[in-house]
Amino acid sequence: MPSLRKLQERFAEAMLDPRSAGSELSIRANGLDGARRLCIYRNNIVNSFTEALRACYPVVNRLVGDRFFNCAAQAYLCAYPSRSGDLREYGSHFAHFLRGFAPAKGLDYLPDVARLEWARQLVYHAAQAGPLDLTTLEAIAPEHHARLRFMLNPAAQLLASPYPLLRIWEVNQTDFEGDQAVDLAIGRARLLILRRGLAIEMQALGPGEHALLHGLVERNTLAAAYEQAANLEPEFDLAEALTRHVLRQSLVGFSLQ
User: Fold this and answer.
1) Among the four 26, 91, 107, 230, which has the fewest Cβ within 10 Å?
2) Per DSSP, which regions of 17-134 are E strands?
3) Could you tell me which CATH class the domain 125-257 is placed in?
4) Is 189 helix (H, G, I), strand (E, B) or coil?
């Protein structure tokens, strides 16, 4: 007679792999043997996690179709079984998984589309932050501005990709009307994904602006982040960019080094 722990381990293995020894567990009721009962459990679990993944990645699903997505979802479940009781956390490794998923070879843009959809998921469920305290910021003497560190809104994510992610995402919305053609060679995407209220906005950024915000996310000082931006855009307007992101609440806090 196996221990309870061993029994639970075999049951968990059987949920992901029908070839495991768990299929031999003696679970009988209503005329069904253990293998058939475990098959019912397994189908329910696979279907539940597949639909949870599809809800997170509707554009990936639309790009590859239901059959391809279902196969990918089942392979993902075996490679990255859920470690949390919160389904919102399931799917965090899907972009990484797709990079090594053999049937997706040739769809080089697909993992980055998944990164975009997961970023939207994170933004949607992130904490709501209040606006930056302008009164306190204005009280800081100008000679100390270079040492300021700004904080990105927790309901915001930065994303960069060599593919036109925003265009791919837009043309694959169910309500999109117009030319659905996408030229993968049209250029690099640099995006700020930001939740305002319950709405998620995606803003295309220039190279300097993206470098500035990325530097601030990395907890660099304003001077260091600006240097990164200016290296990419020598005419980068720091004052204009900061004003806009403070007013849009992309930046919601600051500290002095």
Assistant:
1) 26
2) none
3) alpha beta
4) strand
